[in-house]
Amino acid sequence: MSEAVAIAWRQYRLERRMFWRNPSAAFFNFVLPLLFLGLFGAIYAGSQEDLDVLVPGIAGMSVVSATFVALAHNLVFLREQGVLKRLRGTPMPAGSYLGALAAHAITNAAIQLGIVILAGRFLFGIGWPDDPLALTVFAVAGVTCFALLGAALAHVIPNFDSAPAYVNAAFLPLIAISGVFYDAGESPAFLRDIAEALPLTHLIDGLSGAMVTGASHWSDLVVIGLWAVAGAALAVRGFSWDARRS
User: Fold this and answer.
1) Which of 65, 142, 220, 239 could form a disulfide with 203 if both were Cys (CB 3.0 to 4.6 A apart)?
2) Which of 95, 105, 109, 32 is nearest to 70 (CA)?
3) What are phi and psi of 108, to 5 degrees?
4) Where are the alpha helices (DSSP H) in 157-219?
5) Is 141 within the bounds of a domain?
6) Which residues have a Cβ under 8 Å from the Cβ of 188 and sit 6 or more positions away?
7) What is the rounded CA–CA span in Å between residue 114 and residue 132?
8) Helix axis angle, 189-197 relative to 163-177, nearest 10°?
9) Angle 158-160-166 (CA atoms, 0-180°, nearest 5)?
10) pLDDT for res 245
11) Using one digit for the tens of pLDDT, what is the confidence trace for 106-122?
12) What distance in Å separates the CA atoms of residue 140 and residue 224, rounded to the nearest whole number?
């Protein structure tokens, strides 16, 4: 067990080094959410109420970007390039490698959340989180849920060339409907009903309660948990070490 953990730690450090050597990956993981935060923050500069909605929304989007989007892309690439198949034939435990990938995504999500919290505090007048415990719980739940959903989506994507289309087809409607840039409760009824069924809406509500309002949103964990269970089932059921291309 200790050897598997040590191997996972070494692989994790390698993943971190490779990530920072890829400027485009760093841009889409860190800079893009901050661009949205800066753009909409400038638009809402005269309304603290809108800023109180925006900052938790961008925090939720950052979790999705660092886990769901990143893992869906990376797993398809690794599978189609034959990396997963080759790794399966090495002495490295599968759990160590996959655990390192998950830890890498979790680290990015944690860094992004930290940046958004600091930006909210010093640029948008949000203040420090009112409930650090709730913030931690919802962050862990959100990372777990969207990491599993990203792994599940990767199994649906047939090849790496089509990965951006598949991921954006899920990611863009998700952030548009779930209230990342506005209060989802004020949207038309049919969109509000869809949003209530999606995990990101409940993650944002939980983060908003922890960061801004101080309200309790523990019931939102139920929806996030149900999506996490579904993601885990689909991720395990559809996992393949082999490329699908001929």
Assistant:
1) 142
2) 105
3) -60, -40
4) 163-177, 189-197, 199-208
5) yes
6) none
7) 12
8) 120
9) 65
10) 60
11) 898 888 899 898 888 88
12) 11
Reply yes or no on whether the pLDDT at 185 is more than 90. Answer: no
pTM confidence score: 0.90
pLDDT band at 151 (very low <50, low <70, confident <90, very high): very high
- The CA distance from 124 to 55, in Å, is 8
Confidence band (pLDDT; 50, 70, 90) for 149?
very high
The whole-number average pLDDT for the span 168-183 is: 92
**Other residues' Cβ atoms within 10 Å of the Cβ of residue 161:** 11
The pLDDT of residue 246 is 46
- Report how many domains make up the chain: 1
Q: How confident is the model at residue 169 (pLDDT cuts 50, 70, 90)?
A: very high
The Cα 216–Cα 16 span in angstroms is 35
Which secondary structure element, helix H or strand E, spans residue 143, and what is its range?
A: helix 132-156
- Which tokens belong to 63? 């979790």
Smallest CA-to-CA distance from 40 within 112, 118, 124 is with 124
Per the CB < 8 A criterion, the answer to whether 239 and 155 are in contact is yes
Angle CA 150–178–38, to nearest 5: 95
Task: Say whether 21 sits in a helix, a strand or coil.
Answer: coil
Number of H helices, E strands in the chain: 12, 0
Residue with tokens 């960061």: 211
Decide if 110 is inside a domain. Answer: yes
Is the Cβ–Cβ distance between 154 and 71 less than 8 Å?
yes
Domain range for 41 is 2-238
Residue with tokens 């139920």: 222
User: In angstroms, rounded to a whole number, what is the distance separating the alpha carbons of residues 192 and 26?
Assistant: 33
- Asked if residue 244 is part of any domain, the answer here is no
